[in-house]
Specification:
The protein is an alpha/beta fold. Helix content is 30%, strand content 27%.
């Protein structure tokens, strides 16, 4: 019996140390632009924006969003062309499950250097008050410190998150916002060299990129070439935004792993469709009212990370019972009994976006 016991113990020890560990599957959710037009920030409470899709954000491991504004509590709320909100606007996103924020976009410098510094201060305060880890990337307050990826530890894995933007609407005398213009070859080459060194220290690396042509339903070839170069440099997931409309995603095989390109998630919340009516379901502007919660499953372990699956949960901006713009699942909206032709509008929008993501190419790249 003793021999059998020690043989059993020996086999367990060998199995533990020599056999490959099982992969852990992380569930990540990527939202579009959180914007703040006047009708958005005039809401008395910002939590209803998220309440109808909150279940998805709470169930995952990490939720990502892009903040398309500065956060300066000392100045009034302001809309286009220079966006500013107060901390409570972002607090609602945190309360409803958003964990990781991109702060690099063309509006990050809307209020100049002071706006950047106040945004950083507000972000640190939100992190302290959250009662859990909150992450953000894309801006800096100390010009002597390099832009560094946020380090996220989850389920024993080390994840890197870095946010950059193609442009800033206002000229930066010094680079407080991390800018990499994919049309500038020198900037691209320098950035790729930097990335190759950074990604090696992480098991999963996610890059948020704000850029491209606005309102285009397809990503321009030059941007996609840049994104593929990022994957080749070791990035696993590219989380794109700025066009304000969705663009089809691509799941690309990179040797032994799958990399993911989300060229543009579109708007999560905005007021761009505030003047639309039920007869405008096929108008180009209607695309600014739809997006998706891109649920991404990533396999981690055995020294590698790979994207296993991408599921888009289509959402739309709509009016709640108080006449406020909130976010709801498009599949639910098309089944609701509403007045004024809106069920027909949402059924048509659902048909359009599902066809957009269920073409032969999309089935190969996304829904596998």
């Amino acid at each position: 019996m003793k021999k059998l016991f020690f043989l059993f113990l020996f086999l367990n020890v060998v199995t533990h140390f020599l056999l490959p560990e099982e992969k852990k599957i992380l569930r990540l959710t990527f939202l579009g632009d959180i914007m703040a037009h006047t009708v958005n920030y005039l809401m008395q409470d910002y939590h209803p924006i998220y309440n109808r899709i909150k279940d998805v954000l709470i169930e995952d491991d990490l939720t990502f969003a892009n903040l398309e504004f500065t956060i300066d509590d000392s100045r009034p709320y302001s809309s286009y062309p220079r966006f500013n909100v107060h901390s409570d606007y972002v607090q609602a996103a945190v309360d409803c499950g958003v964990d990781v924020f991109s702060l690099a976009n063309n509006h990050s410098f809307d209020l100049g250097t002071e706006g950047v510094l106040q945004t950083l201060l507000a972000s640190y305060r939100l992190r302290t008050a959250a009662g859990r880890e909150i992450y953000f990337s894309g801006i800096r307050g100390n010009l002597k410190q390099d832009f560094e990826p946020e380090v996220i530890y989850i389920s024993g894995f080390k994840i890197g998150f870095l946010a950059v933007t193609q442009i800033s609407n206002l000229y930066q005398p010094f680079q407080y916002i991390h800018v990499v213009n994919y049309r500038d070859r020198r900037e691209v080459d320098s950035f790729l060299e930097y990335l190759r060194e950074e990604v090696s220290g992480f098991e999963l690396f996610i890059l948020s990129y704000h850029g491209g042509r606005e309102y285009s339903l397809t990503a321009e070839p030059e941007k996609m070439r840049f994104f593929r170069e990022l994957l080749a440099a070791g990035v696993h997931i590219i989380y794109g935004h700025h066009p304000h409309v969705m663009q089809p995603v691509q799941l690309i095989k990179m040797g032994d792993r799958n990399g993911l390109i989300i060229p543009s998630v579109g708007n999560f919340i905005s007021a761009m469709t505030r003047d639309i009516d039920p007869g405008m379901a096929n108008e180009p502007m209607a695309f600014t009212g739809e997006s998706a919660l891109f649920i991404v499953e990533v396999g981690l372990g055995r020294g590698e990370a790979t994207v296993l699956r991408v599921e888009p949960v289509f959402i739309s901006n709509c009016l709640n019972e108080n006449g406020e713009i909130v976010v709801d699942k498009l599949e639910r909206l098309k089944e609701q009994q509403q007045e004024g032709g809106w069920p027909g509008y949402y059924k048509e929008r659902y048909r359009i976006v599902t066809e957009m993501f269920s073409s032969k190419k999309s089935k190969q790249n996304v829904l596998q």
